[in-house]
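Batch job 17 of 40 flagged for manual review because the log was empty.
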Amino acid sequence: MLAQRRPGFDGGMSHSAPPTSRRRTGGIVFLTLAVLGALLALVVMRRMLVMSAPQCFAGKWHGCYDTENGVVLMTLVGLPVAGLVVWALARIRRAAGDLSAWRRSVAEVGLVYGTVPMVWLTLMPGPGAGVVPGRVSLVPLRDLVTMGPLGIGGNLVVLAALGFFAPIRFAALASVPRILALGAGCSALIEFAQYALRLDRVSSIDDVLVNAAGAVLAGLASRPWWRTTEAQPSPERVGS
């Protein structure tokens, strides 16, 4: 006779956590990372951000949204709103039976909210906008040595949110070459816009290289999540 299995006894076999629990944990991890990143930014840039706080909180465009410090400050201030949007989207999707509600919602909001302010900064006009003709630098690595640590760091984060969240949301982008192509293509469009709009900025090939590298590095940081997304079976396969 086969021995009757006792309740709670697994017979030596291990059971993994349910998929819903894993996805919920992933959503909590994403939100935690966003909060920690915001707090770190506040600590590092608190003095610079305080300079633009009076204009921003007074609702003035000049001195807030036309300055780098102001845009960064308002991006950080708006994080709770972004969190509420994630929560609302996730609840709607879970009510519709979407098992990846949190993953998709966090990825979508993070992609948009983390990329749009950075692109806004890159398209901010200089003092000679509309007067100075567009300038192009197509010699690789020539401008890199003049950027300095702050310039290189800034260029690395321009498309970091895109590289981090896009492969989580879209399984078709879940590979390093595709993230690299996406980052390079988006950066090239930004550089072209700077030139075409005559924003008094230099459209440099080095900006494209560093922006794309930042997207790839961020994508590698999120790889544990986008690899899981890529490996999830489709409903047709499950039912076959």
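Reviewer: the log was empty due to a logging misconfiguration, but the result itself is present. The first helix runs from residue 19 to 44. Unflagging and moving on to job 18.
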